[in-house]
């Protein structure tokens, strides 16, 4: 079964990362206030990124990675700016 990792832009401007095995159902849950606490407080505005993974373990590992990223890195990934993402990763490694 495929699993998905996704990022939402919330009305308060924050980026929310999550994982699920049914992306459409989960997006509906978020938009109707039945999703995460973060999304209940500040409804999702839009899905800005998603990717599929072969199993739950891999998807949760990736979700945890994304939640530790800076906003700049999350947005670079969502916008497909892979060169910028690479630069941001390098600058963090040198710090």
What features would you describe in this structure?
The structure is a single chain. With 95 residues, the chain is α+β, with helices and mostly antiparallel strands. It has one domain (3-69): GIY-YIG endonuclease (3-Layer(aba) Sandwich), CATH 3.40.1440. 51% of the residues lie in helices and 25% in strands. The chain is built from five helices and three strands; from the N terminus they run ββααβααα. The protein has helices at 23-31, 37-41, 56-68, 71-78, 82-94; strands at residues 3-10, 15-20, 44-53. A three-stranded antiparallel β-sheet has the order 2-1-3, with helices on both faces. A hairpin with a 4-residue loop joins strand 1 and strand 2 (15-20). The chain is globular and about 40 Å long. The mean pLDDT is 90.
Task: Outline the fold blueprint.
Layout: E1 3-10, E2 15-20, H1 23-31, H2 37-41, E3 44-53, H3 56-68, H4 71-78, H5 82-94
Antiparallel strand pairs: 1-2, 1-3
Helix pairs in contact: 4-5
The whole-number mean of residue pLDDT values reads 90
Class per helix and strand makeup: alpha+beta
Largest sheet: 3 strands, antiparallel
Strand order of the largest sheet: 2-1-3
Helix content: 40-55%
> Which residue ranges are poorly predicted, with pLDDT under 50 across at least 5 consecutive positions?
none
CATH class: Alpha Beta
Question: How many domain units?
Answer: 1
The SSE order reads EEHHEHHH
Radius of gyration: 14 Å
Distance between the termini: 39 Å
Please provide the count of β strands. 3
CATH superfamily: GIY-YIG endonuclease
Any idea of the CATH topology? GIY-YIG endonuclease
Shape: globular
Second-tier CATH architecture: 3-Layer(aba) Sandwich
Number of helices: 5
Strand fraction equals 25-35%
